[in-house]
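Protein modeling request. Please complete all fields; requests missing the sequence field cannot be processed.
Requester role: graduate student
Desired output: 3D structure, token encoding
Chains: 1
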Amino acid sequence: MTEVNWHAQCAMWEGRVLSLQLGSASNAQAEFALRPHLSRLRNVGLGRRGTWERTDPLPHQALPAFSDDELFDLASQVIDTLNDSGSRTTLPFGTVLESRELGEILIGGERWTLDAGQPGLHPVWTTRRDAHGPNLELLHRLIAKKTRNLACRCLGLPQPVLVCDVDERNLLHFAPLAEAGEVVLQCWANGTDAPRFCGALPEQIEAFAEAIVKDMRVFWKRRRSIARQAAEVRAIANSHVADNDAEVDAIIVDMSFQSDDNNLDFHVHYIGVDVALRRGLVLGFIPAFRRKLIENGQNFSSPWGVSERKKERAALNKKGADGRITELAASVLASGRVDPKQVLADLSSAYHTTVEIHTKAAPIFATFYWADGTIRVELIRQGSLDWVGDQLELYGIELPEAKLVAMAGRPISDLAELPFGGDILVERIVPIESGMRFHLSEKTFLIEFASGNTWECPKGLL
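Delivered output (462 residues):
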């Protein structure tokens, strides 16, 4: 059995303790949480190479060296590791668990996190990025408690919003406030400082609630000034949609980085054609300096999704395509290692989807996502492979200088055996710390969702 499966098995019980206690357990709490699962632990055997193996419940194979008290003690050590950034625990057969930042734990170098409300630990790449679940409920309770005697409590509680434009933004928005010119107060869901909102520890959620309440107080105090400035912003935004099939959805301000500024930067959410070539949210940004320039007669173009992407979509549809797709993403879909129909079904309504691809070594996590009308994919195999855009990093390999030069213009498969993308051409290779970085020349194709067919994209549609 692979080391990865061992990680999954240890996460089955260690992660159950962690997630049940949300990272706040004492030794006594660990014992209370773990005791109901001892019978399951006793049905997990130890492999000869220090790997966990699922076996039939044979008493002579089942953890003979560990008493209940020893298991409780080990569980509490794991909890302490998760709670203490920079700490580490070595498990009985040598695998190291370490915490480099709160809300995440490395198991043998692989990134795992809690998912509040769900048992066990989970690979970071498989967890949701938005604010949701018990941690959102906790955040709401804390904000309500901290504002119960404050005037800003009338703002209510923030709700999750997703906007995909140049990047994916998981946000928290309050309802528009009439006294502030119907402006929306915005916070970022990653304000917990944990890799994922769902993996944040209670103390991180509390600190986040404190920061949000601070923003609420500043927003409320400055609501009249915000309303005056928002009127200028709204006039500019309305001019952007005037001759386009689009509308202004919200005028937004983020106070976290400009609480002391007199003139504020504003975000604008439009309803137009989004990055997935669907009708949806389009992001705009109108900083204070731009308002001044516009006042002096300078013109600025509207966001692409407001004015131009509708024409782009029509041109793609005329070719029978629903969008574009990169050579790597098309290769992964055609590899037989993922369900292409399911991936495309997910992307027909969502902005991204993540698939775990099992290999002889550790799994590869493939995240397919929309970016400016094109389906892309990022591939990560912790500690050995990181493929983002036109750059592939392989760790633990060295190449002589002559080989680096000779690979220019050659397919990756001439050098490395990969489950997909082997036909993509190498432009150059540069050494990096602990490995090599491949700069690649990737083609772009058109794709039709119903059939999954892909074909080369004409230059005019790139």
